[in-house]
Amino acid sequence: MKRAFVIGHPINHSRSPMIHGYWLKRYGIEGSYEAIDVAPQDVAPFLDRIRAGEFAGGNVTVPDKETAYALCDERDDLAEDIGAVNTLVAKGDQVVGFNTDYLGFLGNLDERAPGWDEPLGAASAIVLGAGGAARAVLVALKSRGVKEIRLLNRTLDKAETLALDLEGPIACGALDEFGRHAAEAALVVNASTVGMKGTRFERLDLSKLPKTAIVTDLVYTPLVTPLLADAQKLGLKTVDGLGMLLHQAVPGFEAWFGRKPEVTPELRAMVEASL
């Protein structure tokens, strides 16, 4: 029986086991998918378990994406560009890393806010956070021809390092600079973990955004984060992070279990009901 996993720290919020469990049952595949708490300092010995044949592969979530990237034996081109992995696949005694967050992010916005990228040829996007998820978002936005990206992070040095790694139209700043750039933004993306466990951004004045701006959050527990709730109160279009989770899961399942799964309304409703 093939085994797969999702690792992160913490990991009890993850709905990935529910998604992959649904597909395993739907397609009658004998296999398992489990959530395993693995801190960054423990990623290296965990990858050895994959090399030893214990797992067919699995997913990686915060804060392990960049650590796993560094420890993989091989990475695909997209993962190399992004500098982080979220999907691991065992090939013999090797671990190959992929990044499907890119596809999940774009697929979610294309589905939930068709035409979202049209204004961005003449306007800016604001990305909050500078971790592994932000890397995928930045590469995705660059691929859609965004004129200017404002990367805002609590630690400015980390944002500047990320911008240098990826190059392109990325300007960095601190979170408290949001108000200075909000009026020119057509899209705001929260790529940080703020929003989980009741946390929220302080002094982030969404009222300065254009009324046509879209606010999206990669956090999906809760489904409506404080950021999205504040945006909705102002009448702004919002896109939650659940769709990204569902779409990014497809390539991994296919690689581990040999069947390309479908993201169905039933699956989304099931996961949404659990949030």
Write the layout of secondary structure elements.
Elements: E1 2-8, H1 16-26, E2 31-37, H2 43-51, E3 57-60, H3 65-71, E4 74-75, H4 77-82, E5 87-91, E6 94-98, H5 101-112, E7 124-128, H6 132-143, E8 148-152, H7 156-166, E9 170-173, H8 178-181, E10 185-190, E11 194-197, E12 214-217, H9 226-233, E13 237-239, H10 242-257, H11 265-273
Parallel strand pairs: 1-2, 1-3, 4-6, 7-8, 7-10, 8-9, 10-12, 12-13
Antiparallel strand pairs: 3-5, 5-6
Report on this model:
The chain is of the alpha/beta class. It has 2 domains: 2-99 and 245-273, Rossmann fold (3-Layer(aba) Sandwich), CATH 3.40.50; 103-240, 3-Layer(aba) Sandwich (Rossmann fold). It has helices at residues 16-26, 43-51, 65-71, 77-82, 101-112, 132-143, 156-166, 178-181, 226-233, 242-257, 265-273; strands at 2-8, 31-37, 57-60, 74-75, 87-91, 94-98, 124-128, 148-152, 170-173, 185-190, 194-197, 214-217, 237-239. The strands form 2 sheets. Strands 2-1-3-5-6-4 form a 6-stranded mixed beta sheet. It has a 6-stranded parallel beta sheet with strand order 9-8-7-10-12-13, sandwiched between helices. Helix 1 crosses helix 10 (242-257), helix 5 (101-112) crosses helix 6 (132-143) and helix 5 (101-112) packs across helix 10.
